[in-house]
Structure formats: structure tokens, C-alpha cells
Write a structure and sequence with these properties.
heterodimer; A: mainly alpha; 2 domains; B: mainly alpha; globular
Chain lengths: 202, 213
């Protein structure tokens, strides 16, 4: 647990505006601004330590739900620390809740309003040549980006002699996903069980 | 660049599918529930599940429409899946639909993640848990790649033609996946080029269709 940090109302406001600014920069997802969040929360303000920062990201990525929830976990942790940690009782828990509300509002509201307005506009003007060109023209790029996301996730296993099992599993799930309409949860469960039983490690 | 598909001179660059007619969500509650279920199924990202649910199971949109909506979700700031959900909610039910969809995506999964954080303090270090995470990660990257490949079949309807649009898709994969070019740069450079070519192709189609009444 972190050492005790007190947050003034001004600090909360700073947190909100900082996340609101990051929201507008978060093209490709909130995770793209994680380095800046680290600089702000850990290096500059000392509201979080390195461990809780990385574990928030790791947990949000391995749990169900959108990855942006790592922001909620960080907000929770910041508030909780400000209230004296889990042992701080109701006071700490409410500050944790406040942390979630502040960070999630900050990271989601500005980008959501912008996206909503932009989409409304593009639906109303969907016959404009520029709107049609944009949507059809971006399609191949977005498809390429998707495949690279999947690729980058597997490319972190770079040692063939150790990781060939993981690559095999990835390849198998590509084929199964393309050829069958089996429920995605079954595939995930199979991967999880194989891993838990140690079939995937050397 | 050649136009392999002069078959689509008019229309919103998307439809003309021979598939079943599209369906529609019935209520905001349905949006909330659908996005909650969608979020709970997605470990390490929700995109593969979204494509499955929206296009294949619920048939709210065609593959082409999905890619087009996803393009917008991708270039706007904010989490892609959050953007997609609020765009869809807004399309069917306005602002309150958008809020219902995003809430579905966020609220229940958030309590779940928070519960895990409080109970276990993070991700467990035990070899079994780490192994399970690795296994699920490997599956999930496979699912994302498969989703990309599936959506790639929609490029047949691209105004750029199948070959040229596939080339652009491969170029963006090589740039970001292999050479690790930052996303914003890839979107800006390749995106501008691709949109400009598409604009030219669409205009050519338009003038051709005006010449041939």
C-alpha cells in the first residue's frame, strides 16, 4: 500500500482537467496515453506507485470489459490512498469512488461528446462525397490496423523455442474463428485451461 | 489504381448486400444489455466479440457498415469500443441511447474489475493464473487477427477495388505491426492518401453514371 497522500479539492480538479485533456488526445484508445498518465500520477504527483500503476493496466487487460477500465482502477487507487488505504473504512472507500468518477468522467466525456457530434454530423451528411470517401477510404487502413493489433499481441512472444505453443494456439484460434461459429467464450476458456494446466509453457 | 467494381455507381458506399435484411434493436434497455454482455465476453479487448454480435448474431449491420463505423470509432479520440457503442446507441435512440450503450459497456464490468482488485490486489502471481492469462492472451490475439481477416472480405466492395484496397491494408499492417509506426502517424499519412484516392474513384464513378443515364 502507498504512503498516505492528502488530496485538496484543487488536486481533484487538476486530476479531472488533466484526464479531460488526455481524453482528447486518446486516438486509438485511452491506453495510448498511459505513458503520460504514468508521468503525471507516478512521477509528478506521487499519487500512485509504479506497482499499482502497472497492476491496474495488467488487471484491466486480463479481466472482461473494455481496457479503458484501467483508468477507473487508477482513480480508485488514488482516492483510496488519499483516504488512508483499504483500512481507512468508509471515508477511504468514498474517496476511491470519487476517484473513479473523476478519472472516468475526465477520460470519457470530452472524447464521447466529440465523437457523438461528429457521428451525428456524418450521418446527416452521409451523401457528401467527402464523408463517403472518408469512410470507404479509411476501411482498408482500419483492417490493417486490426491485424497488426493481434500481431503485436502475439509478437511479444518472440522466442520460438519457448513460445511455439502460444503461436500454435493463436493460429488454431484464427482458423476456428474463421471456420466455425463456436462461441468466443469457449475459445477463451480453452486457452485459459490449457495455460493454467501448464501445457503452454516450456 | 483500377476500379474493379463499377457495379456500385450510387448508394451509400456500403449496402447492396445479398444477405438477410438487417435487424434493429428494440429499446434502450436492449442496448444496455447487449453491450453489458458484449463487454463481459471480451477479455483483453472487446472488438472480436463486437463484430460477432453486431454483424453475425444480431445482424444490426453488414460487414462493410461495421468497418465504416469502426473507422470513425478509430480515428476519433476515446476508446474505440466506447465510441462504437455510443455511435450505435445514438443512431437508434439518440443521446439517451448512446448513454445506455456506454453505461452497458462500463458499469457492470467496472464493478467486476474493482471487485477483483479489492479481493486479489491485482493479477495473481501463481503459475496457474499466469499460464491461464497467457493462454487467453494467445487466443485473444488470434480472435482479433481472424476478425481483421473476416472484415477484409468487405474490401471487395471498396471503391478502390479489391487489389488496391488490399494493398493499402497490407501497407498499414506493415507500418504499424512490423515497423511500429505510431498509430497517429499511420492514420494521418496512409489515411490521407487512401481517402484522397477513394475520393477520386468515387467522383469518377459519379461522372460515369451521369454519362450513362
Amino acid at each position: 500500500m502507498n504512503s498516505f497522500v492528502a488530496l485538496s479539492p484543487w488536486d481533484w480538479f487538476d486530476l479531472l482537467t488533466h484526464y479531460a485533456m488526455l481524453s482528447l488526445l486518446s486516438i486509438g484508445g485511452a491506453i495510448t496515453t498511459a505513458p503520460e498518465m504514468h508521468r503525471y500520477l507516478v512521477d509528478e504527483k506521487h499519487w500512485l506507485n509504479d506497482d499499482s500503476f502497472s497492476s491496474a493496466i495488467a488487471l484491466a487487460q486480463s479481466a472482461p470489459g473494455p481496457n479503458v477500465l484501467f483508468v477507473a482502477l487508477m482513480g480508485w487507487q488514488v482516492g483510496l490512498n488519499a483516504g488512508g488505504g483499504l483500512a481507512g473504512g468508509f471515508y477511504a472507500w468514498s474517496l476511491g469512488a470519487l476517484g473513479i468518477v473523476v478519472t472516468m468522467t475526465g477520460i470519457m466525456l470530452p472524447s464521447s461528446i466529440l465523437t457523438y457530434k461528429a457521428t451525428r454530423w456524418s450521418h446527416e451528411n452521409s451523401n457528401l462525397m467527402s464523408v463517403r470517401s472518408f469512410k470507404s477510404g479509411m476501411a482498408p487502413i482500419v483492417i490493417g490496423l486490426l491485424i497488426s493489433t493481434g500481431w503485436l499481441l502475439s509478437a511479444s512472444h518472440s522466442d520460438w523455442s519457448l513460445d511455439w505453443r502460444l503461436w500454435l494456439l493463436t493460429a488454431a484460434s484464427i482458423v476456428i474463428m474463421l471456420r466455425t461459429s463456436i462461441h468466443i467464450l469457449w475459445l477463451m476458456a480453452a486457452g485459459g485451461i490449457l495455460g493454467a494446466l501448464g501445457f503452454l509453457s516450456a | 489504381m483500377h476500379l474493379e467494381h463499377p457495379s456500385k455507381p450510387e448508394g451509400s458506399a456500403s449496402e447492396h448486400s445479398l444477405e438477410l435484411p438487417l435487424k434493429q434493436p428494440q429499446s434502450k434497455t436492449e442496448m444496455f444489455v447487449v453491450f453489458t454482455l458484449l463487454a463481459l465476453q471480451g477479455v483483453g479487448g472487446v472488438l472480436a466479440v463486437a463484430q460477432r454480435e453486431m454483424v453475425e448474431r444480431r445482424q444490426w449491420m453488414t460487414k462493410t457498415q461495421f468497418v465504416e463505423e469502426w473507422s470513425v470509432a478509430q480515428v476519433m479520440p476515446g476508446p474505440n469500443i466506447v465510441n462504437l457503442s455510443l455511435m450505435l446507441g445514438g443512431k437508434y435512440f439518440g443521446v439517451s441511447g448512446a448513454i445506455a450503450s456506454v453505461a452497458g459497456l462500463i458499469v457492470i464490468p467496472m464493478f467486476l474489475v474493482l471487485g477483483l482488485a479489492i479481493l486479489f490486489g491485482g493479477v495473481s502471481d501463481s503459475p496457474a493464473a499466469q499460464g491461464a492469462l497467457k493462454g487467453m492472451g494467445a487466443v485473444s490475439s488470434g480472435l482479433i487477427i481472424a476478425t481483421g481477416l473476416k472484415l477484409a472480405t468487405s474490401l471487395r466492395q471498396s471503391p478502390l477495388g479489391l487489389w488496391f484496397s488490399s494493398f493499402v491494408a497490407i501497407a498499414s499492417f506493415v507500418a504499424v505491426g512490423i515497423f511500429r509506426v505510431p498509430l497517429a502517424w499511420a492514420l494521418l499519412s496512409l489515411g490521407t492518401l487512401s481517402v484522397a484516392f477513394t475520393f477520386r474513384a468515387l467522383r469518377k464513378l459519379q461522372t460515369e453514371s451521369q454519362l450513362k443515364p
